[in-house]
């Protein structure tokens, strides 16, 4: 990690070495307090593509992955859409020694829980995500979710969290529902449909966006997809990190 440009001084170079994971954890620390804070982490090319050939890896780099791991390492829970779980064979988060002391001091579990947002609960509950997590996986659904799928989730060891009165999940209720369980440091990694729902509902507090110095053209998805907001919501720049032309930005709700 080569440069940090705080919003108070965008000319100061503070480091020409690779940042340690502890330093990154400090730089990306969640706000203090007991209120839920929903942060998203995404990567985009200069022309707005969130992936290339169906994957984000080709537009990422090693430092982006270090930040990805750090954001997971300090979160209480990683919130992910069901389609992403189905497509990518999502696995449980692992415990990492680099964050063990920090998590213990904060009263966190050894690894973040994974919370899968799904109205239908059309999920493979035989996946290791449900059968072998260090911390029980949560499924976030509506009150009218199919009873047989709720039973299947619970039989697999998942914790069912209700965030909606009907058959669908209400995005603005996800963070409060998880906060009721003491999970206030929330991180969503998408996919774009889920992030779009959070944006449209005005539920997103912070966006950590890696701007990749690449152009791809094509018809790849943006980082957020779905219904547009009536009036664009402005976020404030909190910090920018730079390495090899990659910008690691952090924006917060104003």
Structure in words:
The protein is of the alpha/beta class. Helix content is 26%, strand content 23%. The protein has eight helices and ten strands. It has helices at 21-27, 62-74, 82-88, 97-105, 128-131, 147-155, 171-179, 192-200; strands at 3-6, 37-45, 77-81, 113-117, 138-141, 159-162, 185-188, 206-212, 235-243, 246-253. A ten-stranded mixed sheet has the order 1-9-10-8-2-7-3-4-5-6, with helices on both faces. The two termini are 27 Å apart.
- Quantity of strands, as a count: 10
Number of helices: 8
- How far the N terminus sits from the C terminus, by CA atoms, comes to 27 Å
Rg measurement, Å: 18 Å
Amount of beta strand: 15-25%
Low-confidence stretches: 5-12
User: Approximately how much helix is present in the residues?
Assistant: 25-40%
The biggest beta sheet is recorded as:
10 strands, mixed
H and E string: EHEHEHHEHEHEHEHEEE
Q: Provide the structure class.
A: alpha/beta
Q: What is the mean predicted local confidence, pLDDT?
A: 91
């Amino acid at each position: 990690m080569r440069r940090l440009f705080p919003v108070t001084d965008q000319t100061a170079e503070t480091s020409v070495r690779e940042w340690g994971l502890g330093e990154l954890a400090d730089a990306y620390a969640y706000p203090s307090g007991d209120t839920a804070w929903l942060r998203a982490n995404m990567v985009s090319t200069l022309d707005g593509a969130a992936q290339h050939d169906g994957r984000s890896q080709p537009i990422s780099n090693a430092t982006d992955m270090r930040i990805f791991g750090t954001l997971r390492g300090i979160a209480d829970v990683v919130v992910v859409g069901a389609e992403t779980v189905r497509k990518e064979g999502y696995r449980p988060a692992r415990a990492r020694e680099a964050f063990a002391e920090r998590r213990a001091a904060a009263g966190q579990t050894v690894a973040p829980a994974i919370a899968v947002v799904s109205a239908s609960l059309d999920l493979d509950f035989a996946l290791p995500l449900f059968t072998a997590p260090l911390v029980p996986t949560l499924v976030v659904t509506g009150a009218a979710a199919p009873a047989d799928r709720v039973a299947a989730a619970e039989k697999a060891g998942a914790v069912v969290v209700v965030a909606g009165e009907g058959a669908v999940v209400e995005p603005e209720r996800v963070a409060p529902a998880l906060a009721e369980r003491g999970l206030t440091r929330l991180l969503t990694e998408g996919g774009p449909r889920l992030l779009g729902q959070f944006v449209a509902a005005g539920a997103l507090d912070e966006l950590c966006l890696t701007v990749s110095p690449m152009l791809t053209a094509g018809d790849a998805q943006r980082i957020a997809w779905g219904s547009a907001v009536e009036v664009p919501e402005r976020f404030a720049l909190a910090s920018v990190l730079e390495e090899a032309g990659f910008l690691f930005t952090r924006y917060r709700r104003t």
